[in-house]
Amino acid sequence: MSILKTKELSKIGYTNDKARSLAINMISRYFKHHSKSQIIELLTAILNQPENYMAEEATEKLAATFMDEVKVCDFQTHRLLQESGQLKVYGGKGIDESTKKQMELVMSLPVVLQGALMPDAHTGYGLPIGGVVAADNAVIPYAVGVDIGCRMALSVIDESDSFFKRYSHHMKVALKQWTHFGMEGGLEVPAEHEVLDSALFQETELLRKLQGKAYRQLGTSGGGNHFVEFGEIELYEGNSLRLPAKKYMGLLSHSGSRGLGANLAEYYTRIAMNTCKLPREAARLAWLDLNTQAGQEYWLSMNLAGDYAKACHDVIHASLLKSLGLQSLAKVENHHNFAWKEQMEDGREVIVHRKGATPAHDGALGIIPGSMTTAAYLVKGKGIGNSLNSAAHGAGRAMSRKKAKESSTASDLKKVLSRAGVTLIGGSVEENPKAYKDIELVMAAQKDLVDIEGRFMPRMVRMNKD
């Protein structure tokens, strides 16, 4: 095995400890049978053209360390506003002060005109989870988020509780066979979808490089709170799906654009930070003017990532339903972690960023989940201007993943699942229902934003096992 020494790494340009450490780990894991000359050639290429190696699992971590070195001379320095735009907070009693302060920092950006904080809000990277902001002709990559176009999708199926009793084993097998969770790997049988043939993949060098990764990860889900679950949904009288009011079987999924979105977010955040200089505490909230080439590139890339996230859900739902001989009566979907061109009440066109918030325009349908043992709600938006036509995207975390892990055990989680009658495949204590806010309180805090048209209860949940 050819492992280069520190002096040799320094000689080819690997002068910081992080890059050297990642290089050594990469070589030992993926290239241990390569010759020294081959390794030097590869490391030099990654250093000089890191964007060409962001799409490969073996090299993307090392390549990402050099993305900081995007050289852009044309930049502007901006100050934060002393008086910020209009901010409306929903369910403020259930939102901690650190989250509110984080939102206030976002509101001090000179391009932000209006904001709203949803009742599920908690601290995140950049914009709080549950934060919504309207910006003037600018998009803030870190306010969209890393998991671009993360999405909910619900299929309503004309089966009852008896299907669970008769075919629970088949359902469990199907979830294991036709879903995949985690950072690495993919489905045993590669999926197909027309999104992979999109001409947008040829629009930029980075998208061309990421197309292979998108192909490999199509139809898969990430970690954390991403899930695919079967449950029972009760539709209420007068629902927008125009289905009889009764209980149905439901298939609900939550995941995003995988490595495609993550790489795009990181790359364009770096460009934004190099062209839009802000005070240190707000540095990662740098924006891209939509009149610039970088702004236009990000916009089309973000929209492609959103289409890709939808495609992943399409594959998951189609595969599971086909494997179980089921058909969908109706499907409801909605994005979060995205930006849209919309009009404010005064007629101005703005870029609305929803980081972990559900679009809730007048008549728009969405799904707001709780946890693996609590209700999810099918909702119809009321189009409230103060909320920027938005609502919560879930219950929201009441404690961090670290705290949840420290304060709970696998045995505790099993008891919670048993009492709720829920079967969990994979999962971890970090997603213990106790780590989340009370979904009923969150829904009560946004009764002015959405009407409830149905209630979904999980029965069999598939998640990533950390």
Structural class: alpha+beta
Our Rg estimate from Cα atoms comes to 23 Å
Strand content is 15-25%
Shape: globular
On the 0 to 100 scale, the average pLDDT is 91
The largest sheet, given as strand count, sense and whether it forms a barrel, is: 8 strands, mixed
Runs with pLDDT <50, length 5+?
69-73
Chain oligomer state: single chain
Q: Report the strand count.
A: 19
First and last CA, distance: 30 Å
Number of helices: 13
Give helix % range.
Answer: 25-40%
How would you summarize the topology of this molecule?
Elements: H1 6-11, H2 17-30, H3 36-48, H4 60-66, E1 76-77, E2 86-89, H5 97-107, E3 112-122, E4 129-135, E5 138-139, H6 141-144, E6 151-157, H7 161-178, H8 205-217, E7 227-235, E8 247-255, H9 258-275, E9 276-277, E10 288-289, H10 293-323, E11 328-335, E12 338-343, E13 349-355, E14 357-359, E15 365-368, E16 376-381, E17 390-392, H11 401-407, H12 410-420, E18 423-425, H13 439-445, E19 450-463
Helix pairs in contact: 2-4, 7-10, 8-9, 9-10
